[in-house]
Amino acid sequence: MAERGSGRAERPAGGAPGDGRAIRVLLVDDHQVVRRGLRTFLEVQDDIEVVGEAGDGDEGVARAGELRPDVVLMDVRMPGTDGIEALRELRALDNTAKVLIVTSFTERRTVVPALRAGASGYVYKDVDPDALAAAIRSVHAGHVLLQPEVAGALLAQDEPGGGQGRGTSLTEREREVLGLIADGRSNREIARALVLSEKTVKTHVSNILMKLDLSDRTQAALWAVRHGLPG
User: Fold this and answer.
1) In Å, how far are 91, 100, 138 from 133, measured between CA atoms?
2) Strand stretches in 67-172, DSSP E
3) Fewer Cβ within 10 Å of end Cβ, the chain: N or C?
4) What sections of 46-107 are H helices per DSSP?
5) CA–CA dist 177, 182 (Å, integer)
6) Vertex 86: Cα angle to 83 and 92 (nearest 5)
7) pLDDT (tens digit per residue) in 38-66
8) Residue 64, exposed/middle/buried by CB under 10 A (0-12, 13-18, 19+)?
9) Is the pLDDT of residue 24 over 80?
10) How far is CA 75 from CA 25, 27, 180, 196, 231, in A?
11) Higher pLDDT residue, 226 or 172?
């Protein structure tokens, strides 16, 4: 699919949050009119650059591999490979793009599996444009966007017993890191707050996930909230 230029001056490719580079965004939605509307709005944002589009999940996975975007705006229900399966494929391929689900479906059975598959959050298709731009910036910075009712649904599905006991194996430093994860901090922000290297923080995060038998940061943040660990 050929990509249209934005007509603006060339900008550096997207990088780490706070480095002044444009956030590179890939649009994945089977409705061309939706993609066009998203592109039209996002292209007027000085710090966001739409680098590509895809019309289904398979194409989205392929384009994400080619373009290496910072953030993927992913529809849930698409013909063929849907957004949730595409998200699982991205994670299996170790693609590090943040995935923000853009959906018109509010059912928990739609949104919760997407979050469990590794999405950084979700917004509805009728979201205010400025709120969408803010959501993109937020997930790019490493934050997790959860509506209260969906967070509650995720917590309700957690194992009711034994979770707190697993927490006793965490070191004091790991508990500090987990609290900052629950506060929505990225590894870089945690490193700065605790005066550690990012490599050390990544090691702590890996140990936390292993000890708590969790698969990702979203589940870690929810575990911390459920067990009263302050951010």
Assistant:
1) 24, 11, 9
2) 71-74, 98-103, 121-124
3) N
4) 57-67, 83-92
5) 9
6) 145
7) 999 998 999 999 999 999 999 999 999 99
8) buried
9) yes
10) 14, 9, 29, 37, 31
11) 172
Which contiguous run of DSSP H or E holds residue 163?
Answer: helix 163-167
Contact 123, 131 (CB under 8 A): yes
How big is the CA angle at 20 (ends 19 and 25), to the nearest 5 degrees? 95
Encoding tokens for residue 157? 């599905």
Tracing tokens 């599996």 back to the chain, one arrives at: 113
pLDDT tens digits, one per residue of 145-187: 766 556 655 555 554 444 455 667 789 999 999 988 887 788 8
One-letter identity of residue 35: R
Residues 69 and 24 sit within 8 Å (Cβ to Cβ): yes
